[in-house]
Amino acid sequence: MIVIDGVQLELADVVAIAVGGQKVVLAPSAIERMAASQRSARATAQARPVYGRSTGVGANRSVTLDTSDASADQHGLNLLRSHAVDAGRALDRETVRAMLVVRASQLAAGASGINPALSEAVVEMLNADTLPEVREFGGIGTADLPALAGTALTLLGERPAMDGKPVPVPLASWPTEDALPFISSSALTIGQAILAHQKLATLMENLTTISALSFTAMSGNLEAFAPEVAKASESDATADVAAILRELVAGSGKPARIQDPYCLRMLPHSLGAVREELESLRITLERLAVAGHENPMVFGSVEDGTNGVAHHGLFHMSTLARRIDGLQVALGAACTTTLGRVSRLSDPAFTGLHRFLAGDDAGQSGVMMLEYVAAAAVGRIRANAQPVSLQTVNLSLGAEEDASFATLGSAQLESTAHALATVAGVELVCASRALRAQSRHPEEFSSPRLRAMMEVGFTLPSDVQDRDLRDDLEQAQRLVQESY
Description:
Layout: E1 2-4, H1 11-18, E2 24-26, H2 28-47, H3 73-83, E3 87-90, H4 93-108, H5 116-128, E4 135-137, H6 145-155, H7 179-183, H8 187-217, H9 227-231, H10 236-248, H11 262-265, H12 267-288, E5 297-299, E6 308-310, H13 318-345, H14 348-351, H15 368-384, H16 406-437, H17 448-457, H18 470-479
Parallel strand pairs: 1-2
Antiparallel strand pairs: 3-4, 5-6
Helix pairs in contact: 1-4, 1-8, 3-6, 4-5, 4-8, 8-12, 8-13, 8-16, 8-17, 10-12, 12-13, 13-15, 13-16, 15-16, 16-18
């Protein structure tokens, strides 16, 4: 059971809930914080206009709502129904679960003024795995309005759940005061980015070790990772990766060249850049997962007279979009060196083996086509690296004249993680085949991590005669996504 307290939420916990099906519970402190926020919002709304509570939204912000009669709650239902439209393919269960856990965590932060019972309903939906169907097109990086409005309609029983079944106990009503606060969030964008980030973190850790296998198979020159070189680097992350590689390839043998090609010599730089951007994105996501960014933000206490609201733009995920862009660019650049290693592993001048790591030099193609597959995947990664944070749009009669498109960035980051598993899988197949052909053995090396990855690679089929390598690659793709 993972406790949602609105103060801290580890990214690994989001994955455990979204992918592993861990159950969640709201902390009592979070429920009280939300209740205090609700009291603050109600008191403030009696004293001044509050966007979405006593006014319309978007270009209708100047329209004053009549909340004096029994039909007042119809405004909230109208808002949810009108904002629930989305389109495209339905998102997978893991992504929708990640959205729900992030939303529950954000609400627990206590800045929305929402009824705590609605957050509890989200938790019940998550634990029952009765999920809303969310489609890919709708958000533009300024709150995932369609996804969360659709979630509200599912909780109300107006929309069926993802599996076509109704929610077990639909909510009886949805007050106007709770409509905008519920949907004013980028929980889908953040949740999707968290899942992609965690996949990429695992992939890059394994790709670092796999690159060390390639370095060993090609008798690379360890001088590129020397402490003196690392100390002079412009980035702590570069120095850290140099130290990791130095440990991984210790005792790998005499170097074959005085100076290696960039795909080996620049490993600390290319992998270090990705490491640096992953860390920046991690910090941003951990903050966003517990940030009360609802607009307007509710603060203060009725009890001490400090209650109030602030209309703001924190929901505009421009920082997240830039962080994703930075990581995408670093990954796109790093893939150049990965392709370089795959290419050189096929070259007898670097391995002393047959061309394309084939069984002989009588015209067999060996792993030739794996380089093409890796290049196709790299093409996807580089296309995804085109900055989304430079995009913009003008909507709602000019009331919202910019957008971060962080939602697009998160979706592309997931696509990049999928493609990178292919790239890393190709290098694992090639490096493992080369080391096996060179009669290298895991026990030769002092690094437990290198030995473990070599043993993993040696579980791949050993037959080097020309054959269909699809199964080999699919197995390698699964292996590079595991933690060791």
